[in-house]
Specification:
mainly beta; Pectate Lyase C-like; 40-stranded parallel sheet; 40 strands; Autotransporter_pectin_lyase_C; PbH1; Right handed beta helix domain-containing protein; Pectin_lyase_fold/virulence
Length: 416
């Protein structure tokens, strides 16, 4: 049987010296702060810290803290507040918090390593919030939080993880947010799940690499406002949320580049598979976009890919409509530029629509299969502006749209 420290508030254990402290199976109960470390080295093996519903589990202002072998922190407002020093937490340890965050890593922290750790909130707050340093998470499960991981600065690596978030107390939530001060974020084999709305990943800067990331139960899959993003072997399933529409990937005008390889995007009724407003996007490999008709998008129908700016290259991508001939496969407007090679578009009432001053080149045995659906007609390619070049492309009508409009030219568009 280990040692038990029981208070009526106050602090359980304070480490101020330069020495070393080892606690095995120590229980710290009914305190405002379980463990406070200002310097030195503290190792906690097993045991628990249980607060009074508010306060902190651990506060670090320096030194090194290692928690292992099923350390449990519960009954606290904030789990671990690491302002400086080095933090290690591992071995099936858990944090259950009621307030703002599970783990906070301040700008003065050299590194924080979380391995096989469970962090659970009460439907709000942050699982992990990072303001600097280097954070490595392996096998971390974050659940019942408003915001999963927010990285404001520094470098973060997360693999074999799971993030389950709610709408929080702000009406929306997100799985991962990468701020403009971040150097890099690497997510590998991570599952992000919302409750039907909110964002899977929000990126405001830096470089983000995602490999094997699965996002579901969100209204906005990945929003890239700035920086560079690379995603491969991924899956995004999005809903219409409470705003009436959603999207799989949105690339803003401040983005340097976005590369999607072997990524599957599936809409659940409304919105866009991919929205492109600027920057450069490359989509290749066994990538697939599945969209439904819905009631939002181009002409109140769903859109597979919507381009209003920037440059998009798609190679071997499949864009498939699932609502019996409604919706548009590719909608290019504004100043956007698109190059498609070996692309397969089917299931929409319109295969491709080009307007504005945009440019579209389609080649390399690409195929458009369209159907009229409930509107009684369909269009393979509709051009009302911009410039379209098609080489080696097949356009096939089916259903009510068969033989109606393979290519329809209106306005001042140009087609070769």
């Amino acid at each position: 049987m280990g040692t038990e420290i029981k208070g009526m508030g106050g602090k359980g254990v304070v480490m101020e010296g330069e020495g070393e402290m080892v606690m095995e199976r120590v229980k710290i109960l009914q305190v405002k702060t379980g463990l406070e470390v200002k310097s030195g080295t503290v190792m906690m093996k097993g045991g628990e810290i249980k607060g009074m519903g508010t306060g902190y589990g651990v506060i670090m202002e320096g030194g090194t803290v290692t928690m292992m072998d099923k350390v449990g922190i519960s009954g606290v407002g904030m789990g671990v507040d690491a302002k400086s020093g080095t933090l290690k937490m591992m071995g099936n340890s858990t944090i259950i918090f009621t307030g703002d965050y599970g783990v906070k890593v301040g700008s003065g922290v050299a590194s924080a390593i979380l391995t096989d750790v469970k962090i659970r909130g009460m439907g709000k707050g942050y699982g992990v919030i990072m303001e600097g340093g280097t954070v490595t998470m392996d096998g971390v499960w974050i659940s019942n939080v408003g915001m999963g991981v927010e990285v404001k600065s520094g470098t973060v690596m997360m693999k074999r993880g799971k993030i389950e978030f709610t709408s929080g107390d702000r009406g929306y939530g997100y799985g991962v947010k990468v701020g403009s001060g971040v150097e890099s974020a690497i997510l590998t084999d991570v599952k992000i799940r919302g409750m039907g709305k909110g964002y899977g990943v929000i990126m405001e800067g830096g470089t983000v690499e995602m490999d094997g990331v699965w996002i579901e139960g969100v209204s906005e899959g990945v929003e890239v406002k700035s920086g560079t993003v690379m995603m491969k072997r991924g899956k995004i399933e999005f809903t219409s949320g409470d705003r009436g529409y959603g999207y799989g990937v949105k690339v803003g005008s401040g983005v340097e580049s976005a590369i999607l390889t072997d990524v599957k995007i599936r809409g659940m009724g409304k919105g866009y598979g991919v929205i492109m407003e600027g920057g450069t996007v490359e989509m290749m490999g066994d990538s697939r976009i599945t969209f439904a008709g819905g009631d939002r998008g181009n002409g109140n129908y769903g859109v597979g890919v919507g381009v209003s700016g920037g440059a998009v290259t798609m190679m071997g991508t499949r864009i498939v409509g699932t609502s019996g001939g409604t919706g548009t496969g590719v909608y290019a407007t504004g100043t956007g530029k698109m190059l498609m090679s070996g692309v397969w578009i089917e299931g929409g009432g319109k295969g491709v629509e080009v307007s504005g001053s945009g440019m579209l080149e389609m080649m390399g045995d690409s195929t458009i299969i369209f159907t009229g659906g409930d509107r009684g007609y369909g269009v393979g390619v509709e051009v009302s502006g911009g410039a379209v070049t098609m080489m080696g492309t097949k356009i096939v009508g089916s259903g009510k749209g068969k033989g109606m409009y393979g290519v329809q030219m209106t306005g001042d568009g140009t087609m070769v």
